[in-house]
């Protein structure tokens, strides 16, 4: 009886500590957000969104960073999602359940925790130098695809696993082939979970700066890219550049840039969540 009381007391203390730590984190986050909004809102003018970076804070804009981030994210999704989904389908539906398959799955899970700077070094060696793509948007997008690919694969695997077996058996009983079953039954049923993985990957890709710095992304760009081989910058790099400048007004510009980055992140997540809910209702 004393042991049971001890366990209950221990659990209560543990839950209390978790609650206090969570509450402190929420308060700190709220304070940071309030400070960023207070400092950044006055700089969210029309010129801020249409101008290029400048050494004068009142003339500086974030247009190249927005265009660069949007290009990187769209290309990253175009590269990572088909490859990640195809890999997940193969590992869950076609690959034999042997030691090699288990080894591959374990290593894919481990890669999702690899520091992004490692992918940056890989992108610098392979895409920039060996493939000769240079310090371009394409190099940055391919490198960022490596960063988010394990997340897409693992989340897609879990979504495919969650599809009930009776749906597959019913499809086979009606005479469908394995590929028809996967294409028309399994993937549509797994789409909500797949979209969750896309949300996580987009969120990570939007906030990453180390891989882009390694492949040669610029912190100061005076023109918009005209192709995927153009020099580029991104919102995190633009914010980093402003934070390093001595004038206090540039710190306020960085706060405005953080607000824009958060707005883009929330918008992309909202679109993905809407699509996920739509397909979830259609499956149900």
From TrEMBL:
One of the protein's GO biological processes: phosphate ion transmembrane transport
Instruction: List the Pfam families.
Output: BPD_transp_1
Check the record and name the CDD domains matching this protein: TM_PBP2
Check the record and name the InterPro entries matching this protein.
Answer: MetI-like, MetI-like_sf, Phosphate_PstA
* Keyword Calcium recorded: no
- Record's keyword terms, sorted: Cell membrane, Membrane, Transmembrane, Transmembrane helix, Transport
GO molecular function term, any single one: phosphate transmembrane transporter activity
Query: Where does the UniProt annotation locate this protein?
Result: Cell membrane
Gene that specifies this protein: pstA
Q: What is this protein called?
A: Phosphate transport system permease protein PstA
UniProt similarity note: Belongs to the binding-protein-dependent transport system permease family. CysTW subfamily.
Q: Where is the ABC transmembrane type-1 domain?
A: 66-271
Give TM segment ranges: 12-34, 62-91, 111-131, 137-155, 185-207, 255-275
For membrane topology, the record states: Multi-pass membrane protein
List GO terms (cellular component aspect). plasma membrane
């Amino acid at each position: 009886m004393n042991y049971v009381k001890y366990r209950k007391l221990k659990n209560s203390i543990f839950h209390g500590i978790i609650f206090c730590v969570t509450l402190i984190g929420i308060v700190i986050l709220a304070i940071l957000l309030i400070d960023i909004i207070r400092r950044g809102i006055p700089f969210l003018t029309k010129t801020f969104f249409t101008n290029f970076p400048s050494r004068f804070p009142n003339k500086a804009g974030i247009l190249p960073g927005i265009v660069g981030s949007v290009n990187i994210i769209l290309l990253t999704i175009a590269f990572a999602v088909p490859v990640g989904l195809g890999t997940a389908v193969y590992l869950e539906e076609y690959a034999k359940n042997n030691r090699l398959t288990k080894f591959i799955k374990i290593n894919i899970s481990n890669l999702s925790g690899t520091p992004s700077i490692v992918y940056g070094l890989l992108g610098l060696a392979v895409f920039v130098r060996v493939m000769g793509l240079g310090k371009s948007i394409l190099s940055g997008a391919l490198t960022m695809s490596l960063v988010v690919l394990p997340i897409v694969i693992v989340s897609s695997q879990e979504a495919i696993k969650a599809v009930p077996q009776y749906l597959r058996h019913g499809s086979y009983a009606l005479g469908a082939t394995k590929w028809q079953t996967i294409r028309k039954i399994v993937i549509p049923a797994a789409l909500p979970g797949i979209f969750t993985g896309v949300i996580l990957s987009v969120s990570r890709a939007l906030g990453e700066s180390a891989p882009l710095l390694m492949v040669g992304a610029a912190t100061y760009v005076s023109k918009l890219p005209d192709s995927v081989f153009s020099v580029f910058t991104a919102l995190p790099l633009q914010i980093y550049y402003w934070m390093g400048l001595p004038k206090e007004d540039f710190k306020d510009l960085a706060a405005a840039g953080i607000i824009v980055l958060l707005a883009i992140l929330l918008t992309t997540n909202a679109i993905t969540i809407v699509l996920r809910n739509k397909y979830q209702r259609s499956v149900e």
